[in-house]
């Protein structure tokens, strides 16, 4: 009997998919078991804390004697286990974390964040975006939690977008945006800043976040034989919508919202397909002037957010040299490709 080539290839693809799914389940199961073991050991170390540092040192040494080829039970890692168990005494929370991050991610969080709420927020972002440990550390250093979770953002997303798109749009928005790869020059105009952003588009995508795909800058649209040019046009792969970004060198002005509202309407009519969600607008200003921006957006029909941006001159000294590594950029590009 002759083999049907198309049917055979379909069977091969199906088996490959099942193998990959099984491998992922095995890895997740192994990660879960490791977390629970480390947590349990950490509890024991905490219970014997009155025995002093010698207890941990002796424990690490004796484990090494019986398991010479097994890594992960050094004095340093045993102390991480103790800290993890102390931070999360609730077994249910520990079990939920095993599906979100690796032990190395957890250690980085234990080192760099101060409270459980911040830890859990970053853990959720790791699970969603697949950050490397280096990228996680960079986001913590750049205050992503403070910018994205704590900052009072100015937008009308809740009123102009259906749920859950409104929630995702709000989570996607940052304030401020750290454009720390652009050196501020006195008298710098909007077009020069925009040119630097396009020149460093990979770094811009890294700062904007997972899911942004660059469509073009000075994107041309024509309305009633008149030419208009959008500063930057993106498509968001998770929101499934176009995002119009307008860049302003100075402080927010009410007329900026009207201009952006016009661009969003034009994109909705001229570019957006039936499968796309409503287009979103984002104004980047040196100063968002919160109440003025809020009043300006209140009766605007289209979904718009207003955020500030910071260039190198505006950043605290500790941020000036925090440019992303090649590995971080490649990781973000990979994540964007997978979302597609």
In short:
The chain has helices at residues 5-47, 53-66, 75-87, 91-97, 103-112, 116-129, 133-141, 144-150, 157-160, 165-172, 190-199, 201-208, 254-270, 290-298, 326-339; strands at residues 154-155, 177-178, 212-223, 226-236, 241-247, 280-285, 304-310. It is α/β, with parallel strands linked by helices.
The secondary-structure class comes to alpha/beta
Low-confidence stretches: 315-327
Number of helices: 15
- The CATH C-level name of the largest domain is Alpha Beta
Total E-strand runs: 7
Count the domains: 2
Distance between the termini: 41 Å
Query: What is CATH's topology name of the largest domain?
Result: Trna Endonuclease, Chain: A, domain 1
What is the string of SSEs from the N terminus onward? HHHHHHHHEHHEHHEEEHEHEH
CATH structural architecture of the largest domain:
3-Layer(aba) Sandwich
Using the CA coordinates, give the radius of gyration. Answer: 25 Å
Helicity level, as a percent range? 55-70%
Q: How much β-strand is present in the residues? A: 5-15%
Shape: globular
Q: Largest sheet, if any?
A: 7 strands, mixed
Mean pLDDT: 87
Could you characterize the architecture of this molecule?
It contains 15 helices and seven strands. It has 340 residues and is of the alpha/beta class. The chain folds into two domains: 5-147, no CATH class; 152-339, Trna Endonuclease, Chain: A, domain 1 (3-Layer(aba) Sandwich), CATH 3.40.1350.10. Strands 1, 2, 3, 4, 5, 6 and 7 form a seven-stranded mixed β-sheet that branches. Helix 1 (5-47) crosses helix 3 and helix 12 (201-208) crosses helix 15 (326-339). The radius of gyration is 25 Å and the shape is globular.
């Amino acid at each position: 009997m002759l083999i049907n080539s198309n049917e055979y290839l379909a069977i091969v693809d199906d088996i490959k998919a099942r193998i990959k799914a099984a491998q992922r389940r095995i890895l997740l199961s192994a990660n879960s078991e490791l977390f629970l073991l480390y947590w349990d050991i950490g509890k024991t170390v905490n219970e014997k804390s009155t025995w002093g540092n010698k207890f941990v040192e002796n424990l690490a040494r004796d484990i090494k004697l019986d398991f010479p080829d097994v890594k992960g039970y050094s004095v340093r890692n045993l102390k991480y286990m103790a800290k993890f168990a102390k931070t999360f005494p609730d077994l249910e929370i520990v079990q939920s974390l095993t599906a979100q991050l690796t032990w190395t991610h957890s250690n980085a969080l234990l080192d760099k964040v101060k409270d459980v709420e911040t830890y859990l927020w970053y853990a959720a972002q790791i699970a969603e975006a697949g950050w490397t440990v280096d990228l996680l550390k960079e986001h913590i250093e750049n205050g992503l939690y403070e910018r994205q979770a704590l900052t009072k953002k100015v937008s009308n997303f809740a009123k102009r977008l259906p749920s859950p798109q409104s929630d995702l749009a709000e989570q996607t928005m940052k304030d401020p945006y750290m454009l720390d790869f652009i050196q501020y020059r006195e008298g710098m105009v909007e077009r020069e800043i925009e040119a630097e952003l396009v020149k460093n588009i990979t770094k811009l995508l890294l700062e904007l976040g997972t899911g942004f795909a660059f469509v073009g800058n000075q994107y041309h649209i024509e309305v009633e034989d008149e030419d208009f040019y959008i500063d930057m046009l993106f498509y968001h792969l998770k929101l499934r919508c176009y995002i119009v970004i307008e860049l302003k060198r100075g402080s927010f002005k009410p007329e900026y919202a009207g201009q952006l509202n016009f661009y969003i309407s034009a994109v909705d009519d001229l570019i957006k397909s039936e499968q796309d969600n409503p287009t979103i607008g984002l104004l980047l200003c040196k100063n968002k002037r919160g109440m003025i921006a809020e009043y300006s957006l209140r009766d605007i029909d289209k979904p718009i957010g207003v955020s500030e941006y910071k260039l190198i001159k505006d950043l605290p000294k500790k941020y000036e040299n925090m440019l992303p590594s090649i590995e971080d950029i490649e990781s973000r590009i990979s994540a964007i490709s997978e979302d597609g």
